[in-house]
Amino acid sequence: DLAGTRGVQIVAPDFETAKTFSAYHYDQAHQEVLFATSDGTFTIVKIEYKTTFSGTMRTVTAQPKAGPFLPLGQPGFPIKRIAYGDAGSQKLVVALQDIDCALEVHAASLTQQRTLLGAGKTTIDQTYNLSALIQGRPQAVAVNAQADGVIVSTQEGEVYYFYRVGHDLSLRQRFVPFKGLSDPAMTSMDFLFGSASLVLGSV
């Protein structure tokens, strides 16, 4: 409440069970937050708002709605990074998971049921283990807004681009963006809003 006197509003989503969170991803375009857990699952929290009136005073209250916890990668191991793309009929999530002090890259396509009341339950459609296709130590992940592209960067400064067609998620390109520098490692990687461009930061 920036103009009134209510201060900071704290609203906890109604998670189906108590878990320890290890990573998160905020999708501003769809007002969704993904929370990843220390046991290899994630949940999508939809941020909705309710407006009420008391006379001429309007009050807007956040109403976050948590979906079920879905498995990703190997069960029982923490997810350290997670990224998400929601294109309506296509949804794609990718994560870095710590397996005995080594990071693996796991991805999954999601489907969402439609009901007479609107959007229904989200479930796992197809899973992918991309770890064997990546040389070096994975550092960051990103998914484009079209939910058909996955980007993985490594600590050695290499970028891997995976493209999804149907149920196939295959390696399309790999490159070293800062090859000409003495240290090609990257400090940041993310898509610009709309996913038309990928922004990379060097050390």
What does this structure look like?
The protein has 203 residues and is mostly beta strands. It has strands at residues 21-27, 32-37, 41-54, 57-66, 70-71, 79-86, 91-99, 102-115, 118-129, 138-143, 149-154, 159-165, 168-175, 186-191, 198-202. Strands 1, 2, 3, 4 and 5 form a 5-stranded antiparallel beta sheet that branches. A 4-stranded antiparallel beta sheet has the order 6-7-8-9, with no helix packed on it. A 4-stranded antiparallel beta sheet has the order 10-11-12-13, with no helix packed on it. Strand 1 (21-27) and strand 2 form a beta hairpin.
Please provide the ordered H/E string of secondary-structure elements: EEEEEEEEEEEEEEE
Number of DSSP-assigned strands: 15
Sheet with most strands: 5 strands, antiparallel
Question: How much is the radius of gyration in Å?
Answer: 19 Å
Helix percentage range: under 10%
Provide a count of the helices: 0
| Poorly predicted runs | none
Measure the end-to-end span: 38 Å
Write down the overall geometry: globular
Mean pLDDT: 91
**Amount of beta strand:** over 45%
Summing up helix and strand content along with how strands pair, one would put the structural category as mainly beta
Oligomer: single chain
